[in-house]
Write a structure and sequence with these properties.
0% strand, mainly alpha, 153 residues
Length: 153
């Protein structure tokens, strides 16, 4: 598993979670936590729904892929209505990357690294990172506006 999948989770996922948590701690604000939840839950729901639709769901423990689809379908809209607003251009880019991934057959690397496919990993990383940035960057912009407003008062 090595450096790419420490603890059985992609390193990039752990770093993104750390970024959302750090921003929440620095700002003492729950908005980054909501946005981080929407990002990871939304990504996983779309991932599992795509895997199910294409007929090759991946093992996801006892919960199964349907759990993640339902969790995302319930929580993502609710948290979005309560402040987790993404960058629409980045969401559109995510959709383009996802479409390319599906068109080429939606190849996915297992955490065991057996039969590692660099293209599959690049598409997974690009999609997840783009969606993460879609939720993280608007928070940073909002944070900058808050600092400027406080400085001018």
């Amino acid at each position: 598993m090595g450096i790419l999948f420490p603890f059985g989770i992609r390193l990039s996922t752990l770093l993104a979670v750390a970024a959302f948590l750090a921003l929440a701690a620095l700002r003492r604000d729950r908005a980054p936590l909501l946005a981080g939840w929407v990002w990871i839950c939304g990504f996983e729901a779309v991932f599992q729904a795509t895997s199910l639709t294409l007929g090759h769901p991946l093992p996801t423990g006892r919960a199964g892929p349907v759990f993640f689809v339902i969790l995302g379908a319930i929580t993502v809209p609710w948290f979005t209505r309560h402040g987790a607003r993404p960058s629409l251009p980045l969401v559109a880019l995510f959709a383009v990357i996802w479409t390319v991934w599906v068109v080429i057959g939606f190849p996915v690397n297992q955490h065991t690294m057996t039969g590692f496919d660099p293209l599959a990993e690049a598409l997974n990383e690009a999609a997840k990172t783009t969606l993460g940035l879609a939720y993280l960057l608007p928070l940073r912009a909002r944070s900058s506006r808050l600092v400027l407003a406080e400085a001018s008062s």
